[in-house]
């Protein structure tokens, strides 16, 4: 239970406005959803305009780093080379790579090739070859604010089958995005993504999801892409979370490499694709912060 605020007290969001003119009706709405048994966002994940501005600056770096990777990625380079590119560019732009040393992660970026679903560790031994698909997942800390987004890159001549997987994964994310609006549910988005992927003959990873982000690398809520319409947390203005479905060509079953304890693989060795964006819930709908 949050502390009761008087109507004329300053709002808890830090806007400096009186509560009755600021988040009072917001809180009433939240309370109504809570009473009906829905999961509701805690105050600490509702960002202030100042925090949103800071997070957007962090996102600018994340986007610039992904663009930079896109210009350099090619057949014959190692994923360690991508790590160097990301590390150096992030520092040059004044940021810190968030993955480095995060829960012991040893590198500055995740690079996941073909049947690697996510959290691949860059290595001199992994050389990109003609026909590979790779996810490069970049996360930045700038001025204390976190950003996180990832893209797929095609190496050389990629088969139609794999290209379609990459394309459908991106489309599924965009279809999910259309469901983001204030006072909707995260499950509306999750189901839209899952339905679209399945309609195309693919499966969606269940165990790993998205997350709130901005003040920390991973915040509440945990975000599923196999959830159901009308379920999961209510989306409220000021929330920022990732949309990052992992879509598999074959089975949705996965396993974690027991040597490095990080890299996630598809159980059947079939390819997997992922795109990740950061989205802000606004009064009107949504705003994409990082793509
Ligand atoms: N960027 C990943 C995500 O989307 C998190 C990777 S954690 C790391 O949530 F330690 F592997 F970097
Ligand atoms: Co993420």
TrEMBL record:
InterPro entries assigned: Creatinase/aminopeptidase-like (IPR036005), Pept_M24 (IPR000994), Pept_M24_MAP (IPR001714), Pept_M24A_MAP1 (IPR002467), SEC_C_motif (IPR004027)
Keyword entries, A-Z: Aminopeptidase, Hydrolase, Metal-binding, Protease
Domain Peptidase M24: 54-283
Similarity annotation: Belongs to the peptidase M24A family. Methionine aminopeptidase type 1 subfamily.
Cofactor(s) the protein needs: Co(2+); Zn(2+); Mn(2+); Fe(2+)
Annotated EC: 3.4.11.18
Cofactor details (free text): Binds 2 divalent metal cations per subunit. Has a high-affinity and a low affinity metal-binding site. The true nature of the physiological cofactor is under debate. The enzyme is active with cobalt, zinc, manganese or divalent iron ions. Most likely, methionine aminopeptidases function as mononuclear Fe(2+)-metalloproteases under physiological conditions, and the catalytically relevant metal-binding site has been assigned to the histidine-containing high-affinity site.
Entry GO MF terms: initiator methionyl aminopeptidase activity; metal ion binding; metalloaminopeptidase activity
Native source organism of the sequence: Anaerocolumna xylanovorans DSM 12503
Signal peptide, first to last residue: none
Protein name per Swiss-Prot or TrEMBL: Methionine aminopeptidase
Top-tier EC class: hydrolase
Role, per record: Removes the N-terminal methionine from nascent proteins. The N-terminal methionine is often cleaved when the second residue in the primary sequence is small and uncharged (Met-Ala-, Cys, Gly, Pro, Ser, Thr, or Val). Requires deformylation of the N(alpha)-formylated initiator methionine before it can be hydrolyzed.
Binding locations of substrate: 119, 218
């Amino acid at each position: 239970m949050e502390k009761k605020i008087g109507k004329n007290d300053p709002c808890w969001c830090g806007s400096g406005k009186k509560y009755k003119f600021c988040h009072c009706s917001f809180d009433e709405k939240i309370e109504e959803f809570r009473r009906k048994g829905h999961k509701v966002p805690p105050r600490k994940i509702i960002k202030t305009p100042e925090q949103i501005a800071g997070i957007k600056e962090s996102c600018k770096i994340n986007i610039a780093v992904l663009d930079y990777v896109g210009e350099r990625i090619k057949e014959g380079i190692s994923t360690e080379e991508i790590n160097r590119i990301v590390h150096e560019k992030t520092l040059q732009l004044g940021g810190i790579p968030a993955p480095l040393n995060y829960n012991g992660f040893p590198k500055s970026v995740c690079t996941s090739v073909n049947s690697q679903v996510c959290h691949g560790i860059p290595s001199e031994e992994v050389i990109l070859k003609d026909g590979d698909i790779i996810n490069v997942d970049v996360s930045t800390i700038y001025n204390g604010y976190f950003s996180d987004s990832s893209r797929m890159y095609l190496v050389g001549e990629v088969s139609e089958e794999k290209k379609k997987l990459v394309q459908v994964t991106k489309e599924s994310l965009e279809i999910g995005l259309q469901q983001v609006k204030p006072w909707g549910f995260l499950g509306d988005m999750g189901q839209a993504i899952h339905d679209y992927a399945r309609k195309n003959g693919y499966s969606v990873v269940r165990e790993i999801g998205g997350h709130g982000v901005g003040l920390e690398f991973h915040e509440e809520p945990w975000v599923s892409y196999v959830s159901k319409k009308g379920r999961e947390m209510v989306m409220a203005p000021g929330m920022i979370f990732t949309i990052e479905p992992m879509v598999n060509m074959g089975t949705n079953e996965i396993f974690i490499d027991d040597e490095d304890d990080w890299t996630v693989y598809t159980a059947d060795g079939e390819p997997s694709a992922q795109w990740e964006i950061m989205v802000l819930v606004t009064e009107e709908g949504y705003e994409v912060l990082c793509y």
